[in-house]
UniProtKB/TrEMBL annotation:
GO terms for cellular component: plasma membrane. Keywords: Cell membrane, Glycoprotein, Leucine-rich repeat, Membrane, Receptor, Repeat, Signal, Transmembrane, Transmembrane helix. It is a single-pass membrane protein. This is TIR domain-containing protein. The chain crosses the membrane at residues 1023-1048.
Amino acid sequence: MMNSSMASVKLICMCAIVALSTGNHESLPASSTANSVTGTTVTDRLSNTGAATESTKFSQTAQVTTNVIFPVLETNTTDKAVEAINEILSNSRFKTELASLFPLQSTTIPYPPFMQDSTRAIQNENEPHDYVCPKECDCWLLENPSRHISVLCAIQHIDNGTDFNVFNRTTFPSVLTLHCDPLTLMNSKLYPFMFKGLHSFIALTILNCHFNYVPEKAFYGMTALRELYISNAVNVTFHTAAFDNLPFLEDVSVVHSEMSYVPSLCHLQGLRLVNFTDNNISTLDETGLLCNTSFKNLQVIVLCKNNLRKIAINISDISANLLHFSASDNKIEHISEYSFWGLYSLSWLDIENNLITSFSTYVFQDVNDLKVLSFSRNRPSNFPSGLLSHLRNLTVLHLFDLSLNMSIFDEIRNFRNLQELVLKNNYIENIEMSSLNLFSLLEYFDISNNSIRTLTENIFMSLQNLEKLNISGNLIETLGKEAFSGLSKVDTLDLQYNKIRTLHRDCLQPLLALSVLNLSYNVIENLPSFQGLQNLFVLDLRHNNIKQLDSSTFAGASGIGGINLNNNRIRTIGAKTFRNLQNLALLFIGNNEVDFVENNAFGDLPIIELSLRNNSISDITFFRYSNFPHLRKLDLSDNNVELRISSDLFSTFQGIENLMISNNRIEEVSSRAFESLLNLRFLDLSYNKIKVLQRTALTTSSIFTSVKPFVKLQGNPFHCDCNMQWMKRWQSFPHANDMIITDLLTLTCTVLTGKNVSMLYKLATEDFLCQYKRDCNILKCSCCDVDACSCSYPCPDKCMCFYSSDRSVNSVQCEGKGFHQVPEVIPPAASHVYLDRNNISVVTIHSFTNMTDLEYLSMNDSNVHTIDDYAFATLSSLKTLHLNGNFISIITPKTFFGLKNLQQLSLSNNILTLMEAGSFSHFPAKYKLDLSRNVLSKVEAYVLYEMSFASSLNLSGNPWTCDCEFLVKFYNFTSSNVEKIKDFSVLTCTKNTTSPSNTTILLANILLSDLCLSNTVKLIDNITLVSTLTTLLGTLVIVVIIVFVIFWNRAFLKVWIYVKFGWRICNQEEDQADVYKPYDAFVSYSSKDDDYVVHELVQVLEKDLNYRLCVHYRDFPVGTSIADNILSSVESSKRVIVVLSKNFIESDWCHYEFQIAHQRLLAEKKNRIIMILLGDIDKSKLVPELKDYIQTNTYVNQDDTWFWEKIQYAMP
């Protein structure tokens, strides 16, 4: 086997190698160092792109699809068993190490430190003492093969401010990699002389720096430069002299940079390598390589992924010593007969994936030393006989996707040195033993996706060195006993996507080195013997017709690490089936018909991932008989699991990270069912039959870790009763040891009070209720178990009663029950009472006694005629009262007396004719009032005044009179409250007229001068009286102006008097309780204003004026919720200083702080808020409470010259 590694060769050349940087990571040349931006090494990135250290495109084009055998391998895991499977799969992708076929010696540029054991960071006195490593860079000393410094700098971008002079002092040979941030929006720019001090640097790599021009003398001063690598520039162009003054330059690579033209490189006679992959070059004239004299040392030309359409010149005119030429993935239609003549040393030729339709028989006549050849994926109309016959030194030959038939074997019959042969995706129908007799050195053979029907006995007998064989995608139905005779070195065999039904029991016995076997996507019913296959590690049996597994199925293959049996017809898993597989790490038996698993079926196997998804398993108690110390992922989705998930079911799974039990029939999850799963990261309980989920069911032990598990719950028929109320509050106030519900916004549920399915997050807290027959709060009542308990109240007959888990909601629903009076036994703790559609004609003073917790009362359509005085007097907590659709005609000040917290009153569709003054005087400001569809024609002026305090009004549907005496007042009222009156557009008044039509007028269209002409005349008649009063009014105005000036400047005068004489004029007295409050003021501000608050406001008030302040960053206790901290801080402070700014307006928590302080102001009827205006603000964006406060109270501008005096005056 070829054991040479590409580590001995510079990272060159083939499109596959260069193309590594087209993915998510940039591929660095060998001179590169660790990527400090991503935290990965070059080795990591090569493996991430599937290239590994071999990194050859030829090996990539013939991969076995074992990388999808076990999808779990894509996850990051450090388990040794999984790493071993990863290694096996990586080595099974039919890659041939071609380094030994490519004689180019390694360059002077050493390897990055993470690729060598002999490299280390510069750290002691034995290192170059004059070397300064910038803080943006990492520097290493590379000691093999010679001492060099490798420097990697992670920067945002390059511009004229980027200083490379820090390296001026060093004379130590160095290599430099500049890695710009690929996500930055700023383009880079190169400048002349920017690297002028880097005399000792022998290599320069520039990655992801989006510059578009390389000016003259950009590299001036880098006289020792040998290698230049540029990747991911943008539409880059070069000054014609960009590469001057670089006498030792050997390697030039410009890749993925949208380059369409290269200036002449003819003066660089030391040039060894040119790599222009993935650009826009359309002709060889644009490569800068067509000179009067050829390059003597040029060995590698890579032009992959460009727009070349033909090769019409003799490549030897560029360099007769060329070793490697790659022009794959272009649009080449024609190659001249003499294009490769004279290239006697050429060993690597890649013209794959072009549009070539024909080849001259003599095109390869001078490349007799060619070792690697691919012209796959072209469009030749025929394959000329003798085209390849003289290429006897070929070791790698790729001829796939060329519509070839069996005659190709006659063309290559005598290629005795062949080690890698790829003939996939052709029309080959048969392989004859004589065709393979001379391929004794062949190590890798891919003849997949052809039309082969039969493998004759001993067909591969001569391929004694073969290691990887791919015959997938053919039409093979039977494998005989000697089908693989002679293949004792084969470690990877791919037979997937055939039609194999019958296998001789001993057909695999000759494969003594077999490590990876893929028999997926066939129709196999009975498996062959694996006896003697001690090296077998990965076994893929997906998509077959296997029905039975027994204790002998895997006998003799105890080394197996992974088995995939998905999509078969297995019904039973016995206790002895996998007993002897002591290395088994991955086991997939999904999409089968399994309905029974014996106890101890998995024993003490070291399984890391187990999939039993999409079977018919109903009982999973067998897990109690298995020990899974290494299990990380268990998939039981899409089964018939019915039992309750108890806390001991998965007690042996302490290492599990992913647990999937979705699409089952689980109805209950017990409390703390998953608490023992210390490493749990993801739990899927979606699409089960769970109706109620206790919060403690999702409690985990993750409180001791920094990562909380994620859980999916969607698709369950949740019943949102009081036991589910926690889920409504979870998003805002999750517990420290709760899981994170990833799909909370998609969860649906039904509620007791409705039949429709609702989105859970849209439900109100009062919707999460449990029904009860008797209300007795055990926290407040000690006799709940006694029948005659005085604090236990039954639900009224005919009614339904519900409460929430925290008893904040207690709902009594008695709609449509035919009551003639309010039930006498309504529980006093009721918060919501529904009495709609009854026949309660009178609401008496005794109807709602002792119901101090009632917040919501609805008596719509209940035939109410009369409401006794003080009927609602005891309902001090009532916020909403609905009395729509009744026969109420009169409201007096005693009707709603006591409703001091009422926020909404609905009296629509009654027969109201009179509302006395004071009817709404008991209500707080900003209540909602609906008086629509009554028979009101006019109301007193004072009632209009009371209604002006409402935040929302509905007044339409009443026969309001157009009489001028009332209309003037009503018109002024409605005009001043248009925004509050929701139905203003349809609000009308009625004229007193005998006309049968046109008596109703829209208020919005009324002109008072037209309707109230007589009043206007009276005003004119009284003008004389007005003039008589003018003198008196003039005197009064002067007095008013003087008083107004004093009043307008009263705040300033108070401060001035305080500063001058120390007197506080008309200042509120301090409460006695304030003496014991620890803080003088709590400062409410946005964290974005930290700079002003912390360094100026707090400094002056505490240091200079000796006040004690409460501020977030210092005084909030850890572990207490933010809301509790705010409430406690306001209560503990004598004043609240609000720093009002743009940032404050945009902060929800700041609004909350103000509301707490404002509520305290209203409750105590004292202004304790000191408002500081910081900068300009948009008052239209203020919340209503804040806007009202500013309009009615004084605030202090931060730039006020008397700022500190006013603040000091307002402080206690």
